[in-house]
Every structure is written in structure tokens, then in C-alpha cells.
Amino acid sequence: MLTYFCTHFFLHTGYGVYAQKHYFKQEFLLEYPGQLISEKDGEKREKEYPPDKGSFLYFFKDRGKNYCVDATNSKGAGRMVNDSIRPNAVMKIVILDNIPHLCLFALQHISPGEEIRFDYGVPNLPWRKKVSRLFSESS
């Protein structure tokens, strides 16, 4: 199997996913891998996971139903993609055999060595507060 992404660990940001080839705008990048469960089960797991270990839960709505993909125990690179207020990728729901899958697509051309980032859609994340302070101080 060909590998078109690699992960790196950095002290301040943790793991990140980096392209190893060129990607064009709207091209498929990665699937957010994990177990598809109900929103209720996702909320239950969120409370059960130890805070120091973290969790990789992605909540979404598809065709009138609320779901969660739990990638906490997944080894796929898609779960390591970081958040950004200036993303180069977007998460979309792709239906295969009537089952929703979370897939990342390029918002723009992505070069080899460039980190893949998407907007988690959660405005009050701790690292976003740091970024917004930096932008307001530099204005």
C-alpha cells in the first residue's frame, strides 16, 4: 500500500499529518477512521475516557440522525489531523453502502511537506483562544 501522508510529533502541537505528494483542490485526502456510534454513545464515551489520555470523537448529523465517529483506538492518520482557523482541508460526509464516512478533502492545492489542517468547528478550544489573542495583539 502506498503512503501519501506521514505523521510527526512536535512539542507544542503534538502529532500532525503531512502530505507527501501534491494534492489538488477538492481532491480526497483521508478518512477520519473509527467506530460509527450514536451521539448518545459518543457522549457516554466522552465522559468515560480519562482526561489525560484524550479522545478522538467527531460528532455530526447525517440525514436527520446524530452520530459520532470514535477514532480513539484507531491507528489511522486521519485522526491526527490538527485544527486550524485557516484550514487547507474540509471534512465532508461520504455515503458508502448507506453508511456515513467522514472524509477530508483539499480546499486548495497542498504541497509535499505541508501539514493537513481542518476547522474542527468548535470556536472555544483552548488553543484557539491563544491564537485569537496573538492576532488581536498584532493588529
From TrEMBL:
Q: Specify the species.
A: Holothuria leucospilota (Black long sea cucumber)
**Biological process GO annotation list?**
regulation of DNA damage response, signal transduction by p53 class mediator; regulation of transcription by RNA polymerase II
> What InterPro entries does the entry give?
KMT5A, SET_dom, SET_dom_sf
Q: Which residues form the SET domain?
A: 1-121
One CC-aspect GO term: nucleus
PROSITE patterns documented for this protein: SET
Q: Name one GO molecular function term.
A: histone H4K20 methyltransferase activity
Protein name according to UniProt? Histone-lysine N-methyltransferase PR-Set7
> Which SMART domains does the protein's record reference?
SET
Name the domain of life this protein comes from: Eukaryota
- Spell out the Pfam families in the cross-references: SET (PF00856)
